[in-house]
Each structure stands twice: as C-alpha cells, then as structure tokens.
Design goal:
The protein has helices at about 25-50, 55-70, 75-90, 95-110; strands spanning about 5-10, 15. It has one domain (about 5-110): Four Helix Bundle (Hemerythrin (Met), subunit A). The protein is mainly alpha-helical. The protein is built from 4 helices and 2 strands; from the N terminus they run ββαααα. Helices cover about 65% and strands about 5% of the residues.
Length: about 120
C-alpha cells in the first residue's frame, strides 16, 4: 500500500490524505464527520483559555488532536498535540498563542471542508 500524498491547500493547511477536489465524496464525508463538533470544541478550548483551565484545555486539545488525525490533517494534529503536551507539563503558556493558533487552524480547515463558520 502506498502512502497518501502530502497536500497543501490555498489556506495554508496541509494534510496527508486525498484532496477534496480529487475526491469530492470523501470531502463530503469528512465535512459531515467534522462539522458537528469542531466549532463547539474550539469554543470550549477558548473558554478554557479565558479561565486558564488547564484540565479542560487538555481534554479538548486531545479530542481535537484525534479528530484532526482521523481525517489526516497533520498540521492541525501537531498544533493540538503541542497544546495537550504543554498542559500535561503544567505549562500555562500553551493557553496563549499555541491554543489560539490551533483553534484558528481548525476553523480554517472546517471552513475549507465545508463545515464550521
């Protein structure tokens, strides 16, 4: 079995899965799979950020990391991994720019895939 190609979209988001353009049915499945929860989880992450709640931020980062991994969005997976790892180490600085960047990347991907705001 060959490895999936590394792709990059116009929004700067890259993934290691077939492109939505090449596989529109797959993109629809991904969009339907991702759409119901990414906005809600990103909002939960932002709420954890606002209250400096490391525990909640870690749980949400773990969920979003897994969701990104499931659909091959490796850059987003890595961004959420960084937040999750920082939380495990008790590093409150991950609630700043790292969480903000991961959230923005997630929402850009959701929009690109036809879901989210």
């Amino acid at each position: 079995m060959s490895a999936l190609p590394r792709c990059s979209g116009p929004s700067g988001i890259s993934w290691s899965a077939p492109t939505p353009e090449a596989h529109p049915a797959g993109a629809t499945i991904v969009s339907e799979t991702v759409r119901p929860t990414e906005s809600e989880l990103v909002e939960q992450a932002k709420a954890a950020q606002a209250t400096s709640d490391l525990t909640k931020a870690g749980k949400v980062a773990h969920q979003l990391k897994g969701s990104a991994a499931n659909v091959g969005l490796t850059d987003i997976e890595t961004a959420w991994y960084r937040v999750e790892a920082g939380v495990r180490e008790g590093d409150v600085t991950v609630l700043g720019l790292p969480l903000t960047n991961a959230a923005e990347m997630t929402m850009r991907a959701a929009k690109l895939l036809g879901g989210g705001a």
